[in-house]
Amino acid sequence: MFTGIVQATCEVVAINKKDGLNTLEIAMEAELREGLITGASVANNGVCLTVTRLEDDRVFFDVMEETLAVTNLTKLQVGSQVNIERSLTFGSEIGGHILSGHIHTQAKVRGLSNTEQHYNIELELDKKWMNYILYKGFVGVNGCSLTVGETTANGFMLHLIPETLKLTNLDVIQLGDILNIEIDSQTQAIVDTVERVLALRGIKG
Asked: Taking residues 31-59, what's their average pLDDT?
């Protein structure tokens, strides 16, 4: 379980590609590795991955074929920066919202606006997921817990503050880039429940 508060961006220093499996080698600073053990869960760009090996300042993760197919981890290259969050521990402050680390879909960057006053990102995704992405609601984007801005039939806006840009890899994205999206589970549960109730009553949404 995660909160969507990214702790650091870390560099991919090697990718060992095999049939149906990629092993990521991530360089992590000592503070971020403290207490980390083999088998622990760590979010990489919002994807929950299991630590398979620790070696000096390197942490290794195996990424299965299914995960590669549905996330942007398949697009990582040596030198890429990934958003990293250690799993939530009992008693930790929850500054974002609860995330599972299971990616629902991906969004394409279709607009960027960077001025002295703002940094806005416009994202496009399959419109079926927009049932769960609501204005002023929460969404996980590359593992970051963010507030949803204006919405359209097949997309939404993000309005980012400098602190978010400093701590995450969202400051280096470009038009056409693909970002991992995890919708808010509570919003999904409420929307699906209401739709089922309305369907049982013969009411069309």
From this structure: 96
